[in-house]
């Protein structure tokens, strides 16, 4: 049987699938050509990440399709319910990229509180002529230790982020309409661990209480953070979004950054991917990455091997 990994798959995933008797094709097929390619090449499994969409049109056009797989968590680029109604298995890897995304959240948090994103822009331009001026400009850093991190969505990635925050000595609060409370186990290198319980609270109380806010939610119909929500947050709050574009009103965010209400933002995802607004890209108070939350070698290895094991168990 043939597997089309249209958005790529790790070497370890390819090897596991080949060992299970599958032929893996990693040719990048244009979105409008996916259905034809699947049919012409007798593809049984299509694997995607966030780039390729598997909607009703492709599902209807490909009667031989047995599995649609998403490398990662979010399934908003797949018509999941419709695929299942047609007898197609839909799989993903919700646990594989949690640590990588959580580490990127803290990369943005550390960048924000110490102005690294702006310093790295300006040091090459002015470091030799205005060293003392830049030193003064970036002298008002903030420690994360002892501050309150508000985690919106305390699923797997939210929990991984909470663990890192607890390890840093932060207070962690959470809002999640599906998870009323969760036990967070922080494990250390020597086998010891501590466990603490986080009880979910209202979004409004989280926005009022948190020094920093990180979002870990699926794609939404509307904004989770807009003008009204920004208004009730603490002055000087930091906001990180490594979840999905469209959950923050970017116009309202820029306005809040310009007024000083929000100290900084860290964005890995954007309302208009893959062409983010220039007002976002050029804002010196925003730390920017191009949707790379799960893009570590370790996460991609875990994603590839986990997809392979699921495919083999279904079709093997």
TrEMBL record:
Positions of the D-isomer specific 2-hydroxyacid dehydrogenase NAD-binding domain? 107-293
Matches recorded under InterPro entries:
D-2-hydroxyacid_DH (IPR050857), D-isomer_2_OHA_DH_cat_dom (IPR006139), D-isomer_DH_NAD-bd (IPR006140), NAD(P)-bd_dom_sf (IPR036291)
Question: Would the keyword tRNA-binding turn up in this protein's UniProt record?
Answer: no
Please verify whether the record's keywords include Transcription regulation.
no
MF terms from GO for this chain are: NAD binding; oxidoreductase activity, acting on the CH-OH group of donors, NAD or NADP as acceptor
Signal peptide residue numbers: none
Q: Which residues form the D-isomer specific 2-hydroxyacid dehydrogenase catalytic domain?
A: 8-314
Q: Mind telling me which CDD domains this protein's record contains?
A: PGDH_2
Alphabetic keyword roster: NAD, Oxidoreductase
Task: List the Gene3D superfamilies.
Answer: NAD(P)-binding Rossmann-like Domain
- Family membership noted in the UniProt record: Belongs to the D-isomer specific 2-hydroxyacid dehydrogenase family.
Q: Report what the protein is called.
A: D-3-phosphoglycerate dehydrogenase
Q: What is the lineage of its organism?
A: Bacteria, Pseudomonadati, Bacteroidota, Flavobacteriia, Flavobacteriales
